[in-house]
Amino acid sequence: MDRDGIAKLAQDCFQECPTIVLGSGASMHHGLPSMDMLSNYIRTNMKTEDESEETAWKQVNRALENDNHLETALEKQNLPHSLLSKIIRLTWQCINEKDKVVLETAISCHVAFPLGELLSGIFRSTQIEVHIVTTNYDRVAEYACNSRGILFQTGFAPGYVQKWEGTEHVNFSHRRKKCRVVKIWKVHGSLDWFQTENEKIVGLPLFERPSADYTPLIVTPGPYKFQKTHDDPFRSIINGADKALKNAAAFLCVGYGFRDQHIHPKIYDRCREKNIPIIVLAKKLTQEARDFLKQRAGTNYMGIELASGGSKIYLPQNTDGLNVNDSELWSLSGFNKLVL
Question: To pair with 90 at 20 to 30 A between CA atoms, which of 47, 138, 216, 233?
């Protein structure tokens, strides 16, 4: 397939105003840590305080030594609550440090946000709402909106101390006309969401944790992942994300590995029911992503990953991949060049 054919598939997806699914690979472009980097950070900085924590942490470490995959290692363990709290705080700390750097470069205009460029392009139409579903805790999607002066909604009221309003209760209008807005469904939480000691939910757009009484509202990998999401704000966020995925006219997945049970089953269902356009971009597609494209994406898909000397394109007629001489196609900035 030539570049014109690839561009045609990309434009078909773009013109349907895709629901955008962001995984960790989308944020790594901006210097956010990979799962391996997060794993190493936690291992380096973890300090256990009693025998139960020490025993459980040794088991996690042994699992990490086998494949260094944090989620796999934590899913196999029954961790003391105190140790789980430390993992949450270290996870928050690791990602927050890098997130702050992204903001600093954004303020100085030394960083481009391909996502912001894409959203701006979508809003050149009559579209007034775009949905982003993400497993990421960082605020890259929010910064991308800011970079183009686009309003976004995460379920919290605006302000320095943000009240949880729920995803259906925060709306923006100008002169009685509904504003264009990006709805960001952060199914695993966000760096600026906290729970107080008396279980109050609050949004605080800060870069330092307020105090030990404020617990970051992020869902870390492990056996407590689904238990945590039964409560707000996660319950409402996941319900909203489900609706966005179920009603999608197209999907654009960026750096998403198809490993999260909160998201990919809905993508499977939508592609099976409607055979809608779906494009999956990643520096390296996971095996789960390849399997999805080959077995469950229908007949209207394109997957792109970086390959030696260019990019590798996966299509219904080339399920094992086709090499092309363009090393940018796998990235969101490369996608933008095809559609904008």
Answer: 233
What are 2-42's pLDDT values in tens digits? Answer: 888 899 999 999 999 999 999 999 999 999 998 889 989 99
Beta bridge partners of 247: none
Query: Which of 319, 324, 313, 323 shows the shortest CA–CA distance to 297?
Result: 319
Dist. CA 308–CA 74, nearest whole Å = 34
| Interior angle at CA 285, CA 284 and CA 289, nearest 5 | 170
Q: Is pTM, for the whole model, over 0.90?
A: yes
Residue (of 280, 275, 282, 281) closest to 249 by Cα position: 275
Whether omega before 33 lies within 30 degrees of 0, making that bond cis, reads no
pLDDT, averaged across the chain: 90
Residues β-bridged to residue 199: none
For helices 140-147 and 81-107, the axis angle rounded to 10 degrees is 20
**Going by C-beta distance under 8 Å and a sequence separation of 6 or more, which residues neighbour residue 56?**
77, 78, 79, 80, 83
Find out whether 217 and 211 touch, Cβ atoms under 8 Å.
no
In 3D space, the residue among 226, 194, 221 whose CA is nearest the CA of residue 209 turns out to be: 194
Residue showing tokens 């970051």: 216
CA–CA gap between residue 167 and residue 241 (Å, rounded): 10
Residue 339 pLDDT grade (very low, low, confident, very high; cuts 50, 70, 90): very high
Which of 216, 13, 177 is CA-nearest to residue 96?
A: 216
Q: Where is pLDDT greater, at 247 or 221? A: 247
φ/ψ (deg, to 5) at 38: -65, -45
pLDDT, one tens digit per residue, over 237-258 is 999 999 999 999 999 999 999 9
Burial 244-274 (b: 16+ CB within 10 A, else e): bbeebebbbbbbbbbebebbbebbbebbeee
Nearest residue to 279 via CA among 2, 9, 5, 7: 9
